[in-house]
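Q: Could you predict the 3D structure of Iron-sulfur cluster assembly protein?
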Amino acid sequence: MTQPQTRPRPQVMTLTDAAAERVRAVIARSEKPVAGLRIGIKNGGCAGMEYTMEFAEQAGKFDEVVEDKGVKVLIDPKAILYLLGTQMDFKADKLSAQFVFNNPNQTSACGCGESVAITPVQPEPADASA
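A: Sure. Here are the predicted structure tokens for Iron-sulfur cluster assembly protein:
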């Protein structure tokens, strides 16, 4: 009996060069040892959800570990389906500097850009012809 073919699992998140450089700089200034930057989502804000970021001293048991451009990002397991395909960027201008999430699952955002509405990725149904 042959095993069914599985397709490669997509990376949950990628980082731009600017985001990777900024994450490296922020981690380098940490006073404690840091295993990576943990990214998640939480309910809140006027659009319904907000991205969260915090230093992680170690990876959680169910965290998705993403290594991109020499940076380790830990994805909270509750956020994985909301973040699939997301690109994390870092933008700076005269008035602000912030991480920006280019998320294909985002359906809307509030005017200030602090909160978003995100629809989780739906698993593909099993192929009935297999």
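Q: Anything worth pointing out?
A: The radius of gyration is 17 Å.
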